[in-house]
Amino acid sequence: xxxxxxxxxxxxxxxxxxxxxxxxxxxxxxxxxxxxxxxxxxxxxxxxxxxxxxxxxxxxxxxxxxxxxxxxxxxxxxxxxxxxxxxxxxxxxxxxxxxxxxxxxxxxxxxxxxxxxxxxxxxxxxxxxxxxxxxxxxxxxxxxxxxxxxxxxxxxxxxxxxxxxxxxxxxxxxxxxxxxxxxxxxxxxxxxxxxxxxxxxxxxxxxxxxxxxxxxxxxxxxxxxxxxxxxxxxxxxxxxxxxxxxxxxxxxxxxxxxxxxxxxxxxxxxxxxxxxxxxxxxxxxxxxxxxxxxxxxxxxxxxxxxxxxxxxxxxxxxxxxxxxxxxxxxxxxxxxxxxxxxxxxxxxxxxxxxxxxxxxxxxxxxxxxxxxxxxxxxxxxxxxxxxxxxxxxxxxxxxxxxxxxxxxxxxxxxxxxxxxxxxxxxxxxxxxxxxxxxxxxxxxxxx
Length: 447
Description:
Mean pLDDT: 91
Largest sheet: 8 strands, mixed
Distance between the termini: 57 Å
Helix content: under 10%
């Protein structure tokens, strides 16, 4: 049966609906990415984005000089040095860049920014002795595109390469957790220049390292963050669970410039990950049940994000539980009706470990009050036993409604007691935990 969720809006991210509700000009951009935002998009906008320089994007020792429709960077860069530059736009825009002229924005193939933003930058690594020009155009959310190109120009020093290669990134982050039981893993690194690379599980010089990477001789240009990186890959076996797996990398470029220090790289093995318990299960008597999940193991002692759905769908298509990112997870339901409820639950931790479980409970909603099951007087004590857990009050003076009498012993229990008076009439009112009241009963005691 469908479940109704109790959601506190202040903890939820902006959705398409919520963004639209802020006004007709509001629009959700970059949906599903880290750049997702609700922005004011002028429906009458007919102007293309205005591009301006972004001096702060340059490395510390470099400056820019404004030129007609662009800028140049000084001084010249060293061969294969990290070159970072960028632009700003006066509105949220998506930009493209390439090293050759194109007739228009649509003909350009490389994105400077795949999402809509106001600051756009790129990092690249280029060989010696060349002058470069990169041409940029942008479009806004309304499809208004720059007609004229915006050019960024600079040069690299002519001469031999005297600097060893650098590892600019790893395909799996350094010190990242990895899934339990993975066994083997592909090590991937990206260099600023073409080179030969080796690795070892001990810190050794380049010539003594036992294992080789297979490295590309041409750069990959299919990323908007880096341009002209050279990728290297190797397979590592016997990855250990529950402990650090440490590797050391060194590289030597085509001019025989060799790393004198290793790049230390650690992958953290994780333990077996599991869902320990889920509740409620079976029959319940609750108008607002709370789904509770407990997880253990994995990368961070059970810390994970749990999602659920009423059908067996992919994790990404499920609903994230309201309280999660821990080893204890909770989801409040509200206004349910009698019937069978089934939840497909998947939890995933930072290492990518997953645990799945299907849970069922039957909502048998209690709409009837308790009934009297037994009554007796034992010495000087009056005892009553009811058909379900409840709380009771009594009066020996007059008929009462619950809330107007004297409390009997026991809260939310089936047996209750009160002092027994001789020749008295006990008017007893009881209520169960769901607020269902028992019809008033009268108990007569003798002298």
